[in-house]
UniProtKB/TrEMBL annotation:
It is an enzyme of class 6 (ligase). Tetramer of two alpha and two beta subunits. InterPro entries: aa-tRNA-synth_II, aa-tRNA-synth_II/BPL/LPL, Phe-tRNA-synth_IIc_asu, Phenylalanyl-tRNA_Synthase, PheRS_DBD3. This is Probable phenylalanine--tRNA ligase alpha subunit. PANTHER family: PHENYLALANINE--TRNA LIGASE ALPHA SUBUNIT, PHENYLALANYL-TRNA SYNTHETASE. It comes from Coemansia spiralis. GO terms for biological process: phenylalanyl-tRNA aminoacylation. It catalyses: tRNA(Phe) + L-phenylalanine + ATP = L-phenylalanyl-tRNA(Phe) + AMP + diphosphate + H(+). Belongs to the class-II aminoacyl-tRNA synthetase family. Phe-tRNA synthetase alpha subunit type 2 subfamily.
């Protein structure tokens, strides 16, 4: 035997002309190795082969007992003393138990024994234990020349059959006992050197599945994002520029009428920047913001607290994309009035301990609608249409609190797969205390809503720990194997 089974096969063919049954020639070689070697040789047309299936018989535990100790019928025959009286059936039973029944039945059928009243007596002087002899043959050859014997032994649970694969191998068109390394390609070097004249080429395998392409996969979050963008575009929204991850507290909080004493503005909730720590300046309308905080206006009494310019200049990693909305609404206010719809989907940062459902950074999906005569009813109606496009048909709203919206509503939806109401977003009508200082004229209302991108993504892709989706524990293979996303088909259903 050599190291390469293929060489063994070729040498055997060379000496014997053919291999009639690989299971006989290569007894201790696994069937996987044999088929591997044959396939490789077949591609090079060194061999051809036919698949054989053989039935191999092995001895069962009861058969083993009879092979070693004699068949039940022989054992019972020998237990019956010669002579007219024989032995009482009850005595046989008491001594041999179950073997007595089986052995006696077979002995009667063989006409070795007969019943005489309550006794069993011998009909012959001696017997040949054919069952034992047959079992010996099966034990040695894994089969038996007589099909009937095999059938009978199998019926008696003494042997069982196993199907065994093997191959009959013959020489192929390119037969030789040499294994040349086959070239997969005709190269320039081969043409120059003339090697192409003698080289052996590997045959193309047109049945091969090929290598699956390894590029162009979107991360599940980005799959869901592109679906959501599509819904926004369908509904006439413009995308907001979200490329500034650092904002001043002014845009992230103050312009949104978030009081300077608000707990969200503490270090444990917000990432503040060290270097640079402060914005160089505030936009020119900063005094209107200061006023509305300190003394109010537009029907509001404000927070009646001192408002600090320094505090407003502190730089933060934006904690919500509503900071972007405040910029965009301020720009909108510089133009002559027009109704507008804006959205954004991007990262925000919160100084939170991470666990299965929280990350220090996540994506917010945000929409704002500016129009005259907007009411809470218009917002509810809009949300109904929007979430329906995501496949969520059943919404409920719960009064909530945001410093910048009044009224505010948490959005719940019925999840078919989970069989319960789940919180999916937050929404509200922006306060005049926010809108007027930004420059929006009276009579223009702005409704807004936000949700996390991670929530629908984990629901759709059945991911139970958000850290499997983002961060250093991410299995990159997941990016290539997760299905394409159709929000309307996948939300609200339990997913794989
Ligand atoms: N910014 C809010 C949040 O962080 C979402 C929101 C956006 C709420 C717009 C109302 C209006 O959850």
């Amino acid at each position: 035997m050599s190291k390469d089974l293929r060489l063994d096969i070729l040498n055997k063919l060379d000496s014997d002309g053919s291999i009639s049954d690989t299971s006989a020639t290569f007894k201790d070689v696994s069937i996987e190795s044999i088929i591997g070697a044959l396939k490789s040789l077949e591609i090079q047309e060194k061999v051809g082969y036919k698949t054989l299936t053989a039935e191999m018989w092995s001895i069962e535990p009861e058969g083993k007992d009879q092979l070693e100790n004699g068949s039940y019928e022989a054992r019972i025959f020998h237990a019956v003393p010669a002579g007219d009286r024989g032995i009482a059936i009850d005595e046989l039973k008491a001594k041999y138990g179950n073997i007595a029944n089986l052995g006696q039945g077979k002995g009667l059928r063989n006409k070795w024994l007969k019943k005489d009243g309550n006794n069993i007596v011998r009909l012959v002087d001696g017997v040949v234990d054919q069952t034992k002899l047959d079992l010996e043959i099966v034990n040695k050859t894994s089969t038996h020349p007589s099909k009937d014997v095999l059938k009978d032994l199998k019926r008696r649970n003494l042997i069982k059959s196993n199907k065994v694969l093997s191959y009959a191998v013959h020489k192929g068109a390119n037969f030789s006992t040499e294994l040349k390394k086959q070239s997969t390609d005709l190269t320039v070097e081969m043409l120059h050197s003339g090697e192409w004249k003698t080289a052996e080429f590997k045959k193309f395998n047109f049945d091969s599945m090929g290598v699956s392409p390894n590029g162009g996969h979107l991360h599940p979050l980005m799959k869901v994002r592109s679906e959501l963008r599509q819904i926004f575009f369908e509904m006439g929204f413009e995308e907001m520029p979200t490329n500034d991850f650092v904002e001043s507290s002014f845009w992230n909080f103050d312009a949104l009428f978030v009081p300077q004493q608000h707990p969200a503005r503490e270090l444990q909730d917000t990432f503040f920047l060290n270097d640079p720590a402060m914005a160089q300046s505030l936009p020119d309308f900063w005094e209107s913001v200061k006023d509305v905080h300190e003394v109010g206006g537009y029907g509001s009494i404000g927070y009646r607290c001192k408002w600090s310019e320094e505090e407003a200049k502190r730089l933060v990693l934006r904690t919500h994309t509503t900071a972007v909305s405040s910029h965009v609404l301020n720009k909108l206010a510089q133009e002559p009035y027009r109704p507008a719809k804006y959205f954004s989907i991007d990262r925000v940062y919160r100084n939170e301990a991470t666990d299965a459902t929280h990350l220090a950074e996540f994506h917010q999906v945000e929409g704002v609608i500016a129009d005259k005569n907007m009411s809470l009813g218009s917002l509810i109606n809009f949300l109904d249409v929007f979430f329906r496009k995501m496949g969520l048909k059943n919404l409920r709203f719960k009064p909530a609190y945001n410093p910048y919206t009044e009224p505010s509503m948490e959005i719940f939806c019925w999840h078919e797969g989970f069989g319960k109401w789940i919180e999916i977003g937050n929404s509200g009508i922006f306060r005049p205390e926010m809108l007027r200082p930004l420059g929006l004229e009276e009579g223009v209302q702005v409704a807004g809503f936000g949700l996390s991108l991670e929530r629908p993504t984990t629901i759709i892709y059945g991911i139970n720990d958000i850290r499997k989706l983002v961060g250093h524990k991410v299995d990159l293979g997941m990016v290539t194997t997760k299905a394409a996303c159709r929000l309307d088909k996948m939300m609200g259903k339990e997913s794989a």
